Every structure is written in C-alpha cells, then in structure tokens.
Hints:
Family: Belongs to the LysR transcriptional regulatory family.
GO molecular function, one term: transcription cis-regulatory region binding
Number of strands: 13
Distance between the termini: 56 Å
InterPro entries: LysR_HTH_N, LysR_subst-bd, WH-like_DNA-bd_sf, WH_DNA-bd_sf
CATH class of the largest domain: Alpha Beta
CATH topology of the largest domain: D-Maltodextrin-Binding Protein, domain 2
Strand content: 15-25%
Oligomer: single chain
Organism: Streptomyces mesophilus
Pfam families: HTH_1 (PF00126), LysR_substrate (PF03466)
Amino acid sequence: MADTPTPVQRLADRVPDLVALQLLIAVARLGSLGRAAQELGITQPAASSRVRAMERQLGVALVDRSPRGSRLTETGALVTDWARRIVEAAEAFDAGAQALRVRRDQRLRVAASMTIAEYLLPGWLIALRHERPGTAVQLLAGNSQFVIERLLADEVELGFVEGLTIPSGLSGVVVARDRLVVTVAPTHPWARRRKPVAADELARTPLILREHGSGTRQVLDAALGGLADPLLELASTTAVKAAAVSGAGPCVLSELVVGEELAARRLVRITVEGVPLDRALRAVWRVGHRPVGPARDLLSLTRTG
C-alpha cells in the first residue's frame, strides 16, 4: 500500500515553485514574457513552458499572450498578488537564515579539560584569531566529565578531553598525544633512587591526584587497575603541582604540565615500569553535529599545528 501524502506534500504539489512565482511577478511588472525571462536569466521558451506548467498546476489561465506582449488575466493578477507575499516571505526567511549563519560564524563556544585548556588551546586560539579575527571565543575549562556534560547539554560546539575513549553520544578525533609522568620534589626519597618504580609500588604509595572525572585520573586508574591510593585529590593541575613541589608526596600529571618545574629542578621525574601512561588528546562533538564555521576551523588548526 502506497504511503498517503501528508498535507504539506499535497500543498507542494499544488503551489508553484519560487522561480515560477518570480517569473509571474516579472511579467506583471514588465508586460513581456521575453523581458521577464531575460531578467531571470532563462530562455523565452523555458519561461513559456514554466507559465504553461503553472497554469496546468493551478487549473486557471494566468497570462494572455499577443504580438504586442503579455499581460495578466484577471485571475493572473490576483495570483500575482499572492505570489508577491510568498516571495517576500521567502526573502525574509533567507535573510533570517543568513543572519543566523553570520551570528554562528562570529562566536565559538568551547569546553576543554584543564591540561588542554592551559597548555594547548591558547596557541590554537591565537592561530584562530589570525584566521577569523571577528570571532568571539567563550572557553569553559574543567575536567573531562565537565566537558562531556557541556557538549551533551548543547552548551558548546566543540570540546577537548583527555580520556581513554570517546564517550557515548559523542564523536571525535585525536588531535595530540600526551604522556603522564610521576614527579616528586627534590627532597623526596624517590628523587635519589636509581631503580624504576614498579606498578605495584606505585599503587601502594599515597599520591597527589586529580579528582575523579578528570582524564588524568581516568588514565592512571586504568593503568593501575583502579588501585591508585590518593593522598590528596585536587581539582586543578596547578594545585597538584604546588602540593608536589612543597614535598607533600609524588604526583601524576601530564608532561605538558610539569615541563617548567622539571627544567627548573623544582620537581624530579621518576622512572616507572609496567605502567602504561600514554594517552590521546581528543576533540569531541555531539554525534551528528560535526563542527562547522569557526569550530571546524579550530579543529583544522589543531590537526595541522
């Protein structure tokens, strides 16, 4: 059994398309089918064919043709008045849609996990500023779970996370690689040891850690089978670093985060074995909403920068 046409489908079969309506309006204004065809950039035979098709579709005569030109019938004049309203409404619709596109292309809402927000995004956003100087960027920073929630709530167009996998409901692509490192203050006993720290010893040692929900914590928990022992759980990379520098204990953070402290010997990198600490950094977006406009441009910059 064939599907029954919907009211809108039936309406589409009975209402002429916009080009045909524009042609009728042009005939009324110019008094010539040939000049109307020229104005719309079509041939006169094509214009005549469109008018005849419109008359068949509506079931009424619209245009009287003679050697002196073309003029609307009484019915054609009435239809032309209606056509003007439809074309004006279509033009208003197009102008509104264009305004939405312009507004979209002038702002970008991004959410990023702390490591990416602090150490990678600034460079990407500077490059985006050169590409799109008029784009205003709103950046929200938090842990990876925070980023996921903002995306799923449609509060941002693009997110950056540090977890092991792409969360449900999101699509994504790897934009960088990273590695977690174990570091301690120079006064910590581990700073003088030569033997690597094994996985079981790391799991038994109280550590200064990021909170649950962060990509850093997710990677470490997976590497240690969920056995990481928190000495402190802190919600920012800066706080974790400060606690480790003070000598409170070992910390586990991205090597992007501790580079300056390692160079200045405020922290010492500890060799560990049997602990997989490599991870991917990903750009993510809602399934079915691949980035467009400035979000697409930012994504491109992350992959080439």
